[in-house]
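User: I'm new to structure prediction. If I give you an amino acid sequence, what do you actually give back? Let's try with this one:
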Amino acid sequence: MTTERRFLGLYHFLGCTKHQTHIFVVMEVTEEMIQHLANLSRLSFTEEETKAFKHDLQGMIAFVEKLQEVDTTGVEPLQHMGDAVNVLREDEIQGSIDRKEALKNSPVKDDTFFKVPKVIKK
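Assistant: Good question. You get back a string of structure tokens that encode the predicted 3D arrangement of the chain. For your 122 residues, that looks like this:
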């Protein structure tokens, strides 16, 4: 069974006002939870791997709990890692090679198309 501890705190992040209270649920990572995650992801773990995975997940959750203690008053939410916005180049018409040139190095082809092995069977 999952043990839950609730922490109340006033946080000024994610667009919350000073007066909004958040309840953070910290759950204990259980072997049943890991087996459920393994089943969902179509993985199987040995008993040793389950223990290691449990230890890793508990470390990740503890790290997130620690981050929740940081005072973020006055810090704007970060949406991008840099200041660059829409750094894509403009579309430009450029030349390309003709069909004959494209098919030149193909091992199997006809006059119009590359020929490849069939990969989908009906």
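You can read the tokens as a compact description of the fold. Here is one thing that stands out. Helices lie at 31-40, 47-67, 99-103.
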